[in-house]
Structures are given as structure tokens and as C-alpha cells.
Amino acid sequence: MARPKVENAEIRDSLLQAAEHRLRRQGSPRFSVTDLAADCRMSQSNVYRFFPNKAALMAGLAERWFEDVEVALQVEISAAESWQSKLAAFVRVQLAIKSERFDDDPDLFRAYLTLAGEHPEPVTIHVSRLRKMLEGILGAVFEGRELKRACELVEDATQLFRDPFLIARLRPRCTEERAEAVLAAVLSELEHRLVR
Q1: Measured between alpha carbons, how far is 89 from 189 in angstroms, rounded to an integer?
Q2: What tens-digit pLDDT sequence spans the chain (196 residues)?
Q3: All residues at 6 or more sequence positions from 23 whose CB lies less than 8 Å from its CB, including other chains
């Protein structure tokens, strides 16, 4: 008889939690499925029921980390009324979540960056979803080549406040005050482009 879906989701989540605990403890994703199975008091073959290989497990761990950012962005962007406030939320939420994670546990944050370097597929998917969100925001007022240029301006100008690698390396510079100053300049430029 198959396990109920709720129980499967709970087991999958407990495996991801155990993997994150190992990531935190070891500072890198270099642990075996056998280690993880022992941590969860289950057989290695049972772990493979939920993750067909270690790469899938690592991808699941990365996706879980990104999911919180994407959900929080969707909530804030949906609640904002103007494209300007949606754009501000797009930058502010990413800075708030990523800088808080770094401040709470810099070693775990860096371990996730190592994980991202070794398993880039979930990162590529996450970045693509963020780009679609940004295009959705700016697509309300720009189109075609102007939309592409507007997105590039926002991405380039706000990278310090969104890119976890930069946040880890340059955390003292990643402040709300600096983000607000950059946002004001970007919004001013975008609004100026609209009236040209």
C-alpha cells in the first residue's frame, strides 16, 4: 500500500532538514546519502525513494532555499499597487531575506553558496523566475526593446542588494539606506524614460 502524500511530503522535508543540518555542521555539501540515511534513521534505499541521486537531493535543498524568497516576493509584489512600489518590493524583499540569512548564520549561507556553485541548475531556474517577475513588473509600462533595457538597468544597478555572492562578500555595503538610494535613482531614470 502506498504511503499517503502528506506522509511522503513530511519524510521528504525531514530529509531536506537533515541535509541542511549536515550542510551547516560541515560547511559544505560533501556528505554521502549513507550519512543522511543514518541521520534520519532510515535505509539508504529509502532516501533514494525520495531523491533518485545525490544531485537531486542537493537540487531539492537549493530549491527549498530559493522557494522562500520567491514566495515572499510574490506576496509583496501582489500587495503593491503601482509598478514603482512593486519594483521597490522586488529589491527590498531580496535584500531583507538574503542579508538576514547571512547575518543569522554566515557559515550556512556560505555553505549554500558552495552548494549553488556545485549544482547550478536550481540557481539558473531561480534567476529565470526572478527575471520573469521583473519583466512582469516593468511590462506594465515598457515593451519590446525598452522592456529589455529597463530590466537590464534594474538588474545591473541593484545586483549588490540581490546577489547572495555579493551579499556574502560585501555585507557591510549591502544596507537598506544604500538600496533605497539606488532604488530612487533607478526609479527616476525609468520614469524619465517613460516621458521621453
Answers
A1: 17
A2: 555 665 888 988 999 999 888 888 887 778 888 888 899 999 999 999 999 988 888 888 888 889 999 999 999 999 999 999 999 999 999 999 999 999 999 999 999 898 888 888 889 999 999 999 999 999 999 999 999 999 999 999 999 999 999 999 999 999 999 999 999 999 999 999 988 7
A3: 29, 31, 61, 108, 111, 112, 115
Whether the CB-CB separation of 111 and 29 falls below 8 Å is answered with yes
144-158 vs 83-104: helix axis angle to the nearest 10? 30
What whole-number distance in Å separates Cα of residue 36 and Cα of residue 157?
Answer: 41
CA angle 12, 18, 22 (to 5 degrees): 145
The CA R_g of the chain, rounded to the nearest whole Å, is: 19
Cell readout for 100 is 538576514
- In whole angstroms, what is the distance from residue 37 CA to residue 18 CA? 9
